[in-house]
Design brief:
The protein is mainly α. The chain is built from 5 helices and 4 strands. Strands 1-2 form a two-stranded antiparallel sheet. The chain starts with 17 loop residues before the first helix and ends in an 11-residue tail after the last strand.
Length: 209
């Protein structure tokens, strides 16, 4: 008897069409590099250093014995923090965050290796990638779960949220009683079954109702 395959976990990448997955990956990667380029370019202008593509794509620029290396590390960590926002916007599902976060850093490893024609051998670069991927994963999962667990506010037609509502006559009414009858005239019933009319009861000669 052939062995049954385990069904994919809920929220896995198999739930999304391949073209949609590829679109999300490209969008996140482009946003990742755009934010990094802007941050590094701004930092270079502030410190008076000439901006070059090596500052973004060359792993040799991340050196622990220079101020430039540590400044670039801070820029990349800030870029990862901003990447959490993009994950929240484009992915939105907490179970997919680790896949996309690790994919971003894997592609960055490939791009860096192709640009320098060698695998990174700098310990600071690898430590930075581990810290960046961890922060993007945990903050991304937390932010998506926070949004998923928020209570859904269906609201009402009038958008009233206060504990009491004042009617046109100046009387304070309970929101639960708004729209339901409490007196004479035609009002809407609490059971939603339609309108009814309040009619006064007459007393007989013996004083009974």
């Amino acid at each position: 008897m052939p062995r049954r395959r385990r069904p994919p976990r809920a929220g896995a990448l198999t739930d999304l069409p391949p073209l949609k997955i590829l679109t999300k990956i490209v969008t996140l990667q482009v946003a990742y590099y755009i934010c990094a380029t802007i941050l590094i370019l701004f930092t270079s202008l502030v410190v008076g250093k000439q901006f070059t593509p090596d500052l973004v794509l060359n792993w040799r620029s991340l050196r622990g014995d220079t101020t430039v290396g540590w400044t670039l590390g801070l820029c990349w960590m800030l870029d990862s923090f901003l990447g959490v926002i993009f994950l929240l916007v484009f992915v939105s599902r907490s179970k997919l965050i680790p896949d996309f976060a690790l994919t971003i850093h894997l592609i960055h490893l490939i791009v860096t290796s192709l640009y320098t024609r060698s695998l990174p051998t700098n310990w600071l670069w690898w430590l930075l990638q581990a810290a960046s991927a961890s922060m993007m994963t945990f903050l991304g999962i937390w932010s998506c779960q926070w949004r998923e667990l928020r209570p859904i506010n269906f609201g009402g037609g009038n958008g009233a949220t206060s504990a009491s509502i004042e009617n046109s006559n100046g009387d304070v009414m309970d929101p639960e009683d708004v729209g339901y009858g409490r007196g004479k005239g035609r009002r809407k019933g609490r059971d939603g079954g339609g309108e009814y009319e309040m009619v006064g009861m007459k007393e007989n000669d013996d004083g009974n109702v």
